């Protein structure tokens, strides 16, 4: 999808167009057509009018007080526009937005994100492909960097979605590493991959234990984007859960509505790949490292079992009570590995707990951690701007009590309550060195919105790429001071 700024107006184009405006500020073009003005006074939001050069879609955006909701309304309207453009077999559309820059960009973003398709495995993919491939955007006050950032994060979100949508019989851990290298080459970051032998030499016990039931080897991937004039002396490290398929292991998941979409259990790592890709493509002046432990969780002949005690990369021991609480084991080793970089901040993303999804549904993501409140608030603001909103949960020390084991340093499962928080408290240990926090850290549980079963809006169907836009926006704000 190409998105470009233009000065074109209705008089200089033959393509379908969108004229967008706020509901309390009807443009003269609408007022001059009394019937059209009457339609919008009925509180219609979209009226399409045929013309010699294609339809004109008059789009009214309501002003809203709830933070981020106005731009989100523009994105949702973009989803409608995308559908109309493709139904008309249009290759290009012109958007003339009498809107604030943020809302004009959001409208174009909604169109672009809605236009994503995953058609690789269809025999008639060409027939199914959307016609739309170009958005020409006329918004007063738009800057070149605004458009560059939008294109960067849109294409990165496409990549994150595709990684999630790929079936497991293609996207093994080894193939995932190859895909990361492909994306790195295209977007401008490097990838180093540790094979199983190297992982064994490092004694990453969590990573190795989870993968024991599989005949396919695990990988540990280090992605790095380091511009010449990075503003941060210490890197920002992103960590993503890369379980390419999760059966639950010997604690086998029930099949119905549980295991059939578990190709999405690497959604956190896909978002991490997307965020560093968008940052590199947009040339953010930040040094960013991403860590992706990639495994599959299978109940094979040598699979780790409930009751096992494993030794982690940091040397501590974990009693495994449930092999389906595997994501925290591979993240733990990666969080320990992150200490070697002496990072400014670490953010991990994971489809970690059903508890997070049950707590807030698909309306946002759950966060917690040890970073100061100002950093959490920065992330929350990014959440409102992207409408990948954040619910920050308490992180009191008492939640760690349920992780005490009778035979090891800790166990991998807490009690029946607050599962998303006890999972976070398990991870917290591995952000420490000699009992003290080694770096500020935020944990993001994306289990709720990471995967959809129907194309309700611009987030699409199956992999949504959630987390990519959120973290990129956060990083961009940091880069801009």
Word description of this protein:
The protein has 481 residues and is of the alpha/beta class. The chain folds into 2 domains: 2-142, 3-Layer(aba) Sandwich (Leucine Aminopeptidase, subunit E, domain 1); 153-479, Aminopeptidase (3-Layer(aba) Sandwich). The protein contains 16 helices and 22 strands. The chain has helices at residues 28-31, 34-41, 69-87, 101-114, 125-128, 144-165, 173-187, 196-202, 205-211, 255-259, 267-281, 327-338, 354-360, 373-386, 419-429, 468-479, and strands at 2-5, 17-22, 46-49, 56-61, 92-98, 134-139, 190-194, 219-225, 236-240, 242-246, 288-297, 309-311, 317-319, 345-350, 365-369, 390-392, 410-411, 432-433, 436-437, 441-445, 451-452, 462-463. The strands form 5 sheets. Strands 7, 8, 9, 10, 11, 14, 15, 16 and 20 form a 9-stranded mixed β-sheet that branches. β3 and β4 (56-61) form a beta hairpin. The longest helix is centred in the first third of the chain and has 22 residues, at 144-165. The mean pLDDT is 96.
Distance between the termini: 30 Å
Tell me what portion of residues adopts beta-strand conformation: 15-25%
- What is the share of helical residues? 25-40%
Helix-strand category:
alpha/beta
- Summed up, the domain count is 2
Return the average pLDDT rounded to an integer: 96
* Main pleated sheet: 9 strands, mixed
Annotation, overall tally of beta strands: 22
How would the global form be characterised? elongated
Report the top-level CATH class of the largest domain. Answer: Alpha Beta
Low-confidence stretches: none
Please, what is the CATH homologous superfamily of the largest domain?
Zn peptidases
- Give the number of helices: 16
Q: At the third CATH level, what is the topology name of the largest domain?
A: Aminopeptidase
Return the CATH architecture of the largest domain. Answer: 3-Layer(aba) Sandwich
Cα-atom Rg, whole angstroms?
A: 23 Å
């Amino acid at each position: 999808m190409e998105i470009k700024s233009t000065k074109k107006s209705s008089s200089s184009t033959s393509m379908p167009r969108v004229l967008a405006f706020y509901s309390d500020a009807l443009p003269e073009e609408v007022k001059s057509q009394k019937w059209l003005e009457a339609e919008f006074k009925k509180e219609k939001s979209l009226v399409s009018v045929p013309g010699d050069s294609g339809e004109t879609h008059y789009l009214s955006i309501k002003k809203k007080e709830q933070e981020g909701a106005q731009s989100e309304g523009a994105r949702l309207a973009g989803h409608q526009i995308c559908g109309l453009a493709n139904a008309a077999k249009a290759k290009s559309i012109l958007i003339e937005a009498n809107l604030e820059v943020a809302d004009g960009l959001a409208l174009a973003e909604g169109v672009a994100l809605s236009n994503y398709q995953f058609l690789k495995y269809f025999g008639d993919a060409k027939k199914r492909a959307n016609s739309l491939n170009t958005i020409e955007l006329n918004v007063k006050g738009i800057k070149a960097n605004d458009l560059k950032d939008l294109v960067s994060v849109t294409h990165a979100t496409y990549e994150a979605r595709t990684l999630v949508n790929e079936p497991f019989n293609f996207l093994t851990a080894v193939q995932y590493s190859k895909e990361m290298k492909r994306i790195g080459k295209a977007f401008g970051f490097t990838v180093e991959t540790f094979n199983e032998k190297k992982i064994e030499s490092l004694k990453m016990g969590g990573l190795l234990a989870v993968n024991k039931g599989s005949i396919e080897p695990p990988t540990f991937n280090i992605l790095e984007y380091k511009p010449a004039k990075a503003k941060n002396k210490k890197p920002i490290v992103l960590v993503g859960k890369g379980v390419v398929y999760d059966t639950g292991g010997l604690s086998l998941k029930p099949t119905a509505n549980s295991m059939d979409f578990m190709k999405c259990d690497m959604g956190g790592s896909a978002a991490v790949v997307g965020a560093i890709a968008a940052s590199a493509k947009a040339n953010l002046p930040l040094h960013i490292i991403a860590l992706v432990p990639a495994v599959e969780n299978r109940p094979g002949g040598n699979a780790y079992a409930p009751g096992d005690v494993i030794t982690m990369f940091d040397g501590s021991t974990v009693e495994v009570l449930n092999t389906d609480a595997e994501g925290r084991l591979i993240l733990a080793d990666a969080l320990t590995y992150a200490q070697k970089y002496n990072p400014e901040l670490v953010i991990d993303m994971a489809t970690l707990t059903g508890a997070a999804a049950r707590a807030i549904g698909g309306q946002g993501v759950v966060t917690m951690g040890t970073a100061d409140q100002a950093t959490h608030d920065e992330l929350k603001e990014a959440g409102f701007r992207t409408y990948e909103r954040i619910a920050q949960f308490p992180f009191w020390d008492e939640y760690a009590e349920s992780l005490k084991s009778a035979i090891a340093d800790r166990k991998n499962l807490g009690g029946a309550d607050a599962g998303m928080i006890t999972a976070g408290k398990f991870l917290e240990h591995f952000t420490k060195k000699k009992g003290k926090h080694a770096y500020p850290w935020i944990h993001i549980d994306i289990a709720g919105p990471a995967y959809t079963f129907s194309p309700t809006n611009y987030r699409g169907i199956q992999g949504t790429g959630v987390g990519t836009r959120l973290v990129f926006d956060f990083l961009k704000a940091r880069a801009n001071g």
